[in-house]
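Help: why these numbers?

___
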Amino acid sequence: MRAMPRLLIAGLSGGSGKTVVSIGALLLLRRAGVEVRAFKKGPDYIDPAWLAWASASPVRNLDTFLMGPERVCASFLRHGTSEGVNLIEGNRGLFDGFDAAGTHSSAVLAETLSAPVVLVVDATKMTRTAAALVLGCQKLDPRLSLRGVVLNNVNGRRHEKVLSEAIESSCGIPVIGALPRATFNPLPERHLGLVPPEEHGAIDHVEEGLLRIVKGRMDVDRLIEIAYSAFPLEPYAEERPLLPNARGLKIGYLKDSAFSFYYPENLEELERAGAEVVPLSAMRSSALPDDLCALYIGGGFPETHARELAANKSFLASLRRACENGLPVYAECGGLMLLARSMIWKGTRYPMADVLSIDVEVFSTPQGHGYSELRVDTRNPFFPLKTVLRGHEFHYSRIMGAAEPPHTACAVVRGAGCSDGRDCLLVGNVMAGYTHLHAGATPEWGKGMVLAAHEFALRTRAVKV
């Protein structure tokens, strides 16, 4: 058994203040000298980036739909701390999940990890009704260990006093924090959610602003007490898949403020195989290195950097030549947009790499959002036929201007995909789709990347393998 002090920060809905509470708690715990590790429930890139900034350590996503309960527990045990506090930020509302039964919700994750829950309640324009909401959560699932409440958007001391008395007397759990109604937002939002740390214009002032909100308003000792009340966990004998030997292979990935959506596990899986993983910038690099054996282009915000990307003509030309020469390229969402003929953003068309014979337009509302499931039914560089891929998508762009239906690798079982029930466009050794995959949930991904790099290296004699 391993002692893994832990708690899950949940909310009644999305936008209730979970992220501010989670980041604030991490900052306060670190200031108190407590070792922390942070986790994020569900598929997400932006909130984990902020949690990583606040915890000063990599953040792992935990999701029972993508990974299953055994892999969730194994990942938590492998990456958590036994000496400090493990904080898990939930997503959406506490019981919001895959279906009406709340399958794969934050509550399910809390039960999977036997994690006590701290509930964030947006108290805007309510008093005793807040107690009814907390009591409803207690009654809906009595197995859940609901151990504390943090109030958000509290309008003064009197408001806090009435709320606390109502919740504590009716629900029997303590209010351990009360944050004031915000007069400023240290974490500004835009179309996909929070602005990522890489693009925040005043990152040096964020910690000061967040501490101004939470310092003296959250009971750090109670947070630690709740985390340490969690039962020890039984170790899991995790079976990590064998990977082909990638020693001597160089695999690049685009990493800058335009392309920042990468799960740590994906890059670590390539390194575990022995590959040299090389970060590159689509805005600052003039060309791809000649000795790459594969390229991984994750998601991000290419639309907000469209002008700079389009201006780097030498890099786009180099990317196009590499694709024409058969370099295996795996691209997700933003990567698909970079490989398109052009990108339309706020009425302006920007030329891109022109690898895919499509244009993409970015809209003001999501064009695909949520869990996705694909079935591989066409030969491709990365996955065997009949492989089932479970992932997620969150894109505001849509494919436009294709003269004929693009060649694709996967049928969409769940989700939006590219169009017409299909996802993952194919051109040569390029595979580009809207579905994001997590290597911890899809072990075929790392194996496929390494094998594709091997084949390219053998074909071009780039390295001796």
The CA atoms of residues 244 and 273 lie 6 Å apart. The chain has two domains: 6-228, 250-460. The chain has a mean pLDDT of 93.
